[in-house]
Amino acid sequence: MNPFFGSVFWLLVTLGVLVTFHEFGHYWVARRCGVKVLRFSVGFGRAIWKRTGHDGTEYQVAAIPLGGYVKMLDAREGEVDPALAGQEFTGKPVWQRIAIVAAGPGFNLIFTIVALWLMFMLGKPDAAPIVTAAPQSLAATAGIRPGDRLLSVGGTPVATWSDTMDTVADAMLGREPLPLRVRGQDGAERPLVLPLEQLPAGQDVGQYFDRLGLKLAPPPAIAATVDNGEPAALAGIRGGDRLVSVNGQPVGDFAQFARQVREQAAKSPRLAVGIARDGRAQTVEVTAKWASLEGQSPRWVIGVRPPPGEQAVLRYGPAGAFAAALHTTWERTLSTFNMIGKMLSGQASPRNLSGVIGIAQVANASASMGPAWFLEFLALVSLSLAILNLLPIPVLDGGHLLYYLIELVKGSPVSERAMVIGQYIGLALLFTLMGLEFYNDIHRMLLS
């Protein structure tokens, strides 16, 4: 699928699932508390589909898919039929109103745990944390060598590349030295420290990763697979041959070999590829071709594929998966609040925020990597929605909860004037946040 249309499609799937689940939380608890629900809407604006249920609730899907709402019978919005006074929202005890408002984020939290539970039972295929360092990077300064296996980051054991990146990303926000433990290709373990304090202030995590230079180690320069009928096969290269050079330029790994093929073929498609087979070196003449493979942009290729990197799959039984889901939810919650705190204190840049465009791109990428990856993505976005909605900002669920907590303390509802002022402040904060996120997304696209 085209990346643009794929991003739009998976964004709609993501928002559709998570918004429906969030609003269903409000709806379900409201019904349990005896409140009449007038409308359940997924999306805002004009309805593109709707029907009225047997309970009198109007269910609809609206044209703008960036949220949703549950409209309840509310005396603040108009006169209420005396016969329905017992089903009116503001007439309910404050603890019931708190439960109704908190149910949306609560259901997002439940969704997070369930999605992670399913992900851990399916098993998420990932790369083992075998790394290398870009020349003159912070990782190289720390002593990372090609082929080092990361054993722990910041004292936390790591088994996969994505676990490693999550832990490193959290540490980058504080820009403090990060201890590592690695095992080299010789089998010896050694402690290292990433000097994250040398990262400049005010940049986003993506720019920090570029400066850090910590990367997955590329596969060795071996033709693990040679495609039939392609230039390499026609020239006599076989599976298992070690790729030694291109036009006399030595190569150390498969990434370097592929880069040399592109650079040298751009000058002339006829290449002299040095190979080693059964301990004997030889040179073969290969004519590269300009082609697009598997939907990628056209480039010079010869039809050889690298050996697969070492894989690490996290998979548990039902009980183990549930424990892992709870642990991951807790760790991600702490990480999110850590990031919020560091941004408010100025330690982390607001450039780390991402909006709808960024979410759409990650949704498409994770969906293309398989069901387990997409489940994890849905879980983390759902958790972010739960935390965002609990922030004490008027117009969000957290703002309403703040009003009700004040009501519990003072013994009477917050005045209508105070609520109106709060709504304006909340809208201003929300639109400012959305504008910043949109700016960050566009900025990243222009730099990529």
Q: Which SSEs are present, and which pair or pack?
A:
Elements: H1 3-32, E1 37-52, E2 58-72, H2 94-122, E3 124-127, E4 130-133, H3 138-142, E5 148-153, E6 156-157, H4 161-174, E7 178-183, E8 189-194, H5 205-212, E9 214-216, E10 225-226, H6 231-235, E11 242-246, E12 249-250, H7 254-267, E13 270-277, E14 280-287, E15 289-291, E16 299-301, E17 304-305, E18 311-314, H8 318-345, H9 356-368, H10 371-390, H11 397-410, H12 416-447
Helix pairs in contact: 1-2, 1-9, 2-8, 2-10, 2-11, 8-10, 9-10
Please, could you describe this protein's structure?
The chain is α+β, with helices and mostly antiparallel strands and 448 residues long. The chain has three domains: 3-33 and 92-123 and 374-447, no CATH class; 125-217 and 308-314, Pdz3 Domain (Roll); 225-307, Roll (Pdz3 Domain), CATH 2.30.42.10. Helix content is 47%, strand content 22%. It has twelve helices and 18 strands. It has helices at residues 3-32, 94-122, 138-142, 161-174, 205-212, 231-235, 254-267, 318-345, 356-368, 371-390, 397-410, 416-447; strands at residues 37-52, 58-72, 124-127, 130-133, 148-153, 156-157, 178-183, 189-194, 214-216, 225-226, 242-246, 249-250, 270-277, 280-287, 289-291, 299-301, 304-305, 311-314. The strands form six sheets. Strands 4, 5, 6, 7, 8 and 9 form a six-stranded antiparallel beta sheet that branches. It has a four-stranded antiparallel beta sheet with strand order 12-11-13-14. Helix 1 packs across helix 2. The radius of gyration is 27 Å and the shape is elongated. The two termini are 21 Å apart.
